[in-house]
Amino acid sequence: MDEDREHSPWTGWANAETYDSFVREHPIYRWLNRQLVEIGRVAEAGNVLDLACGTGATTRACLAVLPPRGEILGVDASTAMVEVARARVGDPRARFAVAPASGVSQVAASAAPFDRVLSNAAFWQFPDPASVLAGLSPLLTPGALFAFNVPASRLAGEATPVHPFQVALARAVSDRSGAGAGGGSEAVDPGVLEAALREAGFRLVSRERRVYRSTQHELMELMEIPAMLHRAAPGLAPARRRDALVEARRATDPEQAVEVPWLYWLASFGESPGQPADPR
Fold it and tell me: 204 lies in which domain range?
């Protein structure tokens, strides 16, 4: 996970440990990472950069398919997240470093060049994605693949289902603050994002929508992560956020089925814009 370290809700041990417990106990991150590893063709990779690696879930998914001589560097802005990742991932092919995404070149240059970059459930949260892409460019081999995902609910123009738990949480937050749960950020414009990729020397290979199916219980548990609840109710004090969450949980059927769509991008670095996309 990654944002400006001074102001990021992702810092701190309590957040890192709660996040790590959720990732291990619930399937959504395993599903997200399987899709990302498949789309990013990590099984064919030699040197992988896991950008905003959190507590190492994406790193572990990469290691499961990475060739024996492959290596991976996980980078995250949160010291606590990285320390948990180091404790959880014992494979000698993996290393970790602390840096914001915009400063990745400062800690990753010695491990470069990379032929893969993956960023799971994080790229849309970076304050300045264009600067992140500019920092990545010197670290990559020609033809390197960059795979990342964004929840459809964060994208402008993407149709997404509205889940009862989200409605209940928005209402509970509004009752306490006078404003609905805005999610902590404006919608991401896919056109702007893809223009930033082109400007940094990337060519779009694919963009596809994949749908995760679960129950509202998992969405409720996701909000137990302090940073996630902060994003849903950024204007509330922690105790009032917690009260809103408790109220929303009581108002919702945890067994109700939900569908959560995600958009996955794959881009190739340093190839001619006129070159056709790799069909693999």
Answer: 13-154+186-213+260-269
Q: Does 114 map to a domain?
A: yes
pLDDT of the residue at 6: 45
Tell whether 167 is covered by a domain: no
Return the CATH number at 138.
3.40.50.150
- 186: exposed, middle or buried (C-beta count within 10 Å: 0-12, 13-18, 19+)? exposed
pTM of the shown model: 0.91
> Nearest-CA neighbor of 250 among 180, 172, 161?
172
Residue 123 lies in a domain: yes
- Counting as low any pLDDT under 50, the low residues of the chain are 3-6, 180-184, 272-280
pLDDT for position 271: 65
Is residue 176 included in any domain, yes or no? no
pLDDT, residue 7, reads 57
What is the tens place of the pLDDT at every residue in 224-246? 999 999 988 988 999 999 999 99
Total domains in the fold of the chain: 1
